[in-house]
Every structure is written in structure tokens, then in C-alpha cells.
Design brief:
By secondary structure, this protein is an alpha+beta fold. The protein folds into two domains: 151 residues, no CATH class; 47 residues. It is built from five helices and ten strands. The strands form two sheets. Strands 3-2-1-7-6-5-4 form a seven-stranded antiparallel beta sheet. The chain has a three-stranded antiparallel beta sheet with strand order 8-9-10. Strand 6 and strand 7 form a beta hairpin. It is globular. The two termini are 36 Å apart.
Length: 207
């Protein structure tokens, strides 16, 4: 496959739960427009498995324009950890309650699921963040795998800040970054950032 450089909107580093402890990652690119190749997903894969310490040299050779991954990120404030934990365990706790009422012999499995969900919520909180680096915005988040996405400023379609009543009381907000991808675009979220970061990002975009 041949990928036109002008259609690359961002690059991403994905670290699965299994690969991350061993220092391995996957590199992918976000492409604007339709498919390149036979499938809609395969064209985004740049390198299937690579040691993290070799990513910088790989990008320097293949995509030097995108060799700007930050070493440090602005992290999520401690007062936001409750949101991450509640989102992670809401459904497992409901499942545990149902199990305790109707399937008492299976309560241990449901309890283990709650514990795993709490751990995953903490991992999502710990890994979330963003960084501004010259002409690039880097966003880091986790659903199951940890992802770091590097976006050139000129490729950003929109940046939104969303906050509800509790967020406003605690000085928090959710960052949504939109870029072109395939047919419908891609939206990247960093949840419960400090609201003070809003002015910093807006000023960076204006400049």
C-alpha cells in the first residue's frame, strides 16, 4: 500500500495491556478520506509491533515530521479520580448486586470483576493527559489499550470543552479533539482535565 503523506492527519502509539509490560507498542497513522487498500482498518497500520525505545528512530526514518512525541504529559488532577472509578465500576457493581440477589453461588466472580474494573479505572486515570509541543498537540488516553496520538496543529478540525454542573464546581472539563479520518472523522477525549488548561490550549491554537 502507498499512503500519501498529505493525507496523514496524525500518528498513534498503541500499547495493549499484554504488550505494555514488555515494552512493545503498535504504530498507526490516521488517514483522511476513503480507504487505501482492501479494508477500512488495515490501511492505518504503520508497524505492527516495535519496542518503545525504537519508536523515535523509526519515525525519524519514516515520518520525520511526526518525530515529536513528548516525554512528559500534563496529567489529570487528583480530584478527578472519582469520575474514572465510578465510570469503570458502575455496571460491574450492578452485576454484583444482581448476582447477590439471584445467583449467590457466583458472587465471587462478580466481585473479582468489580476489582478488575476498579484497577482499570485507576489505569485510565493515571494514563490520561495531554501535551503541547511547538506545532503539535499530543493526547494520551486509555480504553483498554493505552494510546498516545500526535496531531499537528494544522490538522486539528476542532477543539471542544465540555463540562457539567459537578465539573464547574470542581474546576474540571472534558477535552474533545476532532480530526479527519476515513469518512466520519475521529474524536479523541481527555476527560476531567483541569479547567485552567482551557486558556492554555486556546492561546496555543490562536497562535
Amino acid at each position: 500500500m502507498t499512503i500519501p503523506l498529505k493525507r496523514i492527519q496524525a500518528i498513534g502509539i498503541e500499547e495493549s495491556i499484554i504488550r505494555q509490560p514488555f515494552g512493545f507498542a503498535t504504530i498507526y497513522v490516521v488517514i483522511a478520506g476513503g480507504e487505501i487498500g482492501k479494508t477500512a482498518e488495515a490501511h492505518t497500520l504503520l508497524f505492527p509491533i516495535i519496542r518503545k525505545k525504537k519508536i523515535d528512530s523509526f519515525l525519524e526514518n519514516i515520518l520525520p515530521e511526526y518525530n515529536a512525541l513528548p516525554k512528559q504529559f500534563n496529567s489529570i488532577p487528583k480530584r478527578a479520580i472519582g469520575y474514572y472509578l465510578i465510570r469503570a465500576v458502575a455496571i460491574p457493581i450492578l452485576l454484583l448486586v444482581v448476582t447477590l440477589i439471584f445467583f449467590q453461588n457466583w458472587w465471587m466472580i462478580a466481585a473479582i470483576l468489580v476489582a478488575i474494573s476498579l484497577w482499570m479505572g485507576w489505569m485510565r486515570y493515571r494514563d490520561a493527559g495531554y501535551q503541547i509541543n511547538d506545532q503539535y498537540l499530543s493526547v494520551r488516553f486509555r480504553i483498554l489499550s493505552k494510546e498516545t496520538v500526535l496531531i499537528p496543529k494544522r490538522r486539528i478540525q476542532s477543539v471542544e470543552w465540555i463540562h457539567h454542573f459537578l465539573h464547574r464546581k470542581q474546576g474540571l472539563a472534558q477535552l474533545k479533539v476532532s480530526i479527519l479520518s476515513k469518512q466520519s472523522g475521529r474524536h479523541l477525549w481527555v476527560k476531567e482535565l483541569d479547567e485552567k488548561e482551557h486558556n492554555k490550549i486556546i492561546k496555543w491554537l490562536e497562535n
